[in-house]
Design a protein that fits this description.
Strand content: under 5%
Mean pLDDT: 78
Order of helices and strands: HHHHHHHHH
Radius of gyration: 21 Å
Low-confidence stretches: none
Structural class: mainly alpha
Number of strands: 0
Helix content: over 70%
């Protein structure tokens, strides 16, 4: 077995070359596009490198890597489905606003109002929001990155969304609140 516990990049290169094509092909069966499969594979390899100290303790490296691959691929599909759903909802809403040009706020104005609302959040709450909504990380990934419990991450995110909605109601009107409701 190849040891990755040290910072030895040659050991990692052996793992990389041994698994790269197999992982890309496996992920491709799930995500259906080569570009996405390569992107997910890259994320998997980064995760393996970052967690290399723990790999020596794993009895079934194949199973471990394929489990990570499946989870990352499914997370990618969930995020893609969420993005498609969001765009569909926003495009359905857009024509209603497009007819009334006097009341319409441009997308840039929406983004600025949202940015202002996010900036009203406390530092940690803002970081949790951005990791979740901008970077698309799961509660578990955010908890690991920020050294928090998953429950704390969830509480921060729920509170952040509530505060953002309140701020937008006060400053941006109901159209923005509807948009954020769709986002949450």
């Amino acid at each position: 077995m190849i040891s990755l516990a040290s910072d030895d990049s040659s050991s990692f290169e052996q793992i990389f070359h041994a698994y790269k094509n197999r992982i890309v092909n496996y992920v491709l069966t799930i995500v259906k596009t080569e570009e996405a499969a390569k992107e997910v594979t890259q994320e998997i390899m980064i995760k393996l490198w970052l967690c290399r100290e723990a790999l020596d303790k794993i009895n079934n490296l194949d199973g471990y890597i394929y489990t990570i691959a499946r989870n990352k691929a499914l997370n990618h599909l969930r995020k893609a489905a969420y993005d498609v759903k969001l765009l569909a909802e926003l495009s359905r809403f857009a024509p209603q606003q497009h007819n009334n040009t006097d009341d319409r706020i441009s997308l840039k104005d929406y983004e600025q109002l949202l940015k202002n609302a996010v900036n009203t959040l406390s530092g940690q709450r803002r970081q949790v929001y951005q990791l979740s909504r901008v970077e698309g990380l799961s509660h578990e990934q955010i908890a690991q990155r920020m050294h928090l419990s998953k429950k704390t991450v969830k509480n921060h995110l729920v509170a952040a969304l509530k505060l953002i909605r309140q701020h937008l109601q006060q400053t941006g009107g109901t159209a923005i609140v509807l948009t954020l409701f769709i986002l949450s």
